[in-house]
Amino acid sequence: MQKLETNMRKDSVFKTLLKNKEYVADLINHFLYHDKKKIEANDLDEVNPVLTSLNKKGAKTERILDMAYAIKKGNDVVRIVGIENQSTVDQDMIIRILKSDALAYENQLSRKKRKEIEHVVRVSSMVMYWEEGKWSAARSLNEYLRKEGMEVEEGPDYDYELISPSELKEEEIEALDTPIKMVLECIRHSKDGKKLDEAMSKPIYQDIPDDCAEAIKAVTDIDIIIDKDNKGEGINMCLALDEIKKEQRETGRLIGKEEGREEGRLIGKEEGKFEMMKAMFVALKETNPNKTEEEIVEIIARTTKRNKEEVKIVVS
């Protein structure tokens, strides 16, 4: 149940992230168009992700995508892109993609017959794997059939575009033009505290947008403090993260299991939680000089879901 709730929370965070058309355009340019074309955020229209079809007997088939966008050239739609967010590997993903793409074509055909559109356009699918590790599922129909033990003759195939941070080269992530590169990089290094630390020392991390910070928080053990009352103050958030990491090192309260000290992972005991609250207090006080101590205590109480009076006692 807890794992299900965690995955649902992640899905919500990443759907919010991919409502940012700047990020989506960036991903499409680099991974779907492979830098051969260039679209802008205003070339994208978010479209209904619910795909339905009725057969002659009235039976309904339905697929719901996580996100769907129409790519426009002027006023004309030239391509439809469906996006699936994944926190786990789906071994049958190519079959899901085939179903959803077929429904998208069928919907277009129906609209064309009703003279709502003039042309049927290409449908493409992108799968975003928001976890560290390799995507082990088949990425094409032929690969899927081979895994099923079928002999596949050379010929036409069907696939989807996979974005799996752990399988991207560093230069591929660096080539991205928007802050979503920070999310992909943090996922790529989420199991390696040293590399994660090195990545987050880059100048770009001095201003983490709220939506990216939420995503980084969802997939790493870094407890980024996000003040809901002051959205957009990314630079404070990043500085606070640096201060928290510094406090964590100074207190020495990091996990010491198996391979020893893992940076960024606090002891899951009550004492460790108190140290985290103290670190939050120091970080927020340092990076938000205009806030009163009372306001900072309230932020920590909301973030940690603790009683305000308890937080006040801990940080005093």
Cα-to-Cα separation, first versus last residue:
37 Å
List low-confidence stretches. 234-238, 252-269
Strand content is 5-15%
Q: What's the helix count?
A: 12
The radius of gyration computed from the alpha-carbon positions, rounded to a whole number of angstroms, is 23 Å
What CATH calls the topology of the domain at 1-168 is: Trna Endonuclease, Chain: A, domain 1
CATH architecture annotation of the domain at 1-168: 3-Layer(aba) Sandwich
In what order do the strands lie side by side in the largest sheet? Answer: 1-4-5-6-7
Succession of helices and strands? HHEEEEEHEHEHHHHHHHH
State mean pLDDT (0 to 100 scale).
Answer: 82
Oligomer: single chain
CATH class of the domain at 1-168: Alpha Beta
Query: What spatial form do the alpha-carbon principal axes imply?
Result: elongated
Helix content: 40-55%
